[in-house]
Amino acid sequence: MKNMMMKNRTILTTLGIALMGMIMVGFAANAQGGGHGKGHGRGHGKGGGMEKAIERLNLTADQKQKIQALRDQFKTTHAATFEQIKTLREQMRTAMKDKNKEQAQSIREQMKAKMESLKPAREQLHQQILAILTPEQRAELEKMKSERKEKMQAKGKEMKEKRGKKGQTGADRGDLD
Q1: Whole-angstrom Cα distance, residue 83 to residue 103?
Q2: What is the DSSP secondary-structure string of 41-88?
Q3: Phi, psi of 91 (to 5 degrees)
Q4: Do residues 134 and 43 lie in contact, with contact meaning Cβ atoms separated by under 8 Å?
Q5: 3-state class of 148 per DSSP?
Q6: For the segment 27-46, what is each residue's pLDDT rounded down to a tens digit?
């Protein structure tokens, strides 16, 4: 049980870092209307989370341009790794669809390793972007991160509670009178 909790914490930490990297990388693209291409159609359209974040940070045109340049450089430098992760994700979906748990786990570990290999570069990008932001914008970004973390924790708790109820009958859950 403790080992499983540590794995979950590690996975959540990795995903959190990856998410922050993607948020920071995506700022300028979305601010300039470039965030609606392939892979951006999951509820992040007009009025989505990214645009709200950009609005809250109130980036200047100069900041947007500088962040876009960093983003473009990051994307170009790590394009091969992103493509490999995409391929692995597709392979994992196939393995899961085929109910091949061992293969899916192996692919998941490969994806995790690829994501971990990007961690230093994402952190560097994050620091470069922070250097562009004003102290007020950095404070607002930290506030947004805290809010996001709280939301994710609440969602995780909700999912854990749902999983706990899976084995119960409707009467046990209180669904039936």
Answers
A1: 20
A2: -SS-STT-HHHHHHHHHT--HHHHHHHHHHHHHHHHHTHHHHHHHHHH
A3: -65, -40
A4: no
A5: helix
A6: 434 433 444 333 433 333 44
